[in-house]
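Hi everyone,

Forwarding the result from last night's run.
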Amino acid sequence: MRDGLFIQILLIAFGASMFITGVISLVRKKMSEVVVVPWGLGALIFIILGIIVRPDGWKTYLSTSGLIMIIVFFVIATYAIYFFSIRITETMKKNNELAIQVSLLNSEVEELRKKMEAMEEDVSANEKDSVRN
């Protein structure tokens, strides 16, 4: 077995797990489409790297413990970005809810403003009538 085959399998598995995580998060509505698309692109990049790159001489440049440290770093960074993406989606949802509430409040304020203007016209008309009598 080639030395680089292990790294290729890791890259493909990492890309596939990113893709599956993104799709599951989309289905469970933890992430929105806007946030899942970069996850899918990142997964596609890792899968393509796993297919194209042939790191056969990696042992001359990197020790096994160094490779393990890089793998652990990527896994931790991916989970951190995953939770950050979930928080971004929650913030986007809350922002949309607030925009809807502001729109409803603006329409209510406009209705109240019209009612107040009508009431002011009635009061001024009543004052004019009472002054004449």
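The chain has a mean pLDDT of 88.

Cheers,
N.
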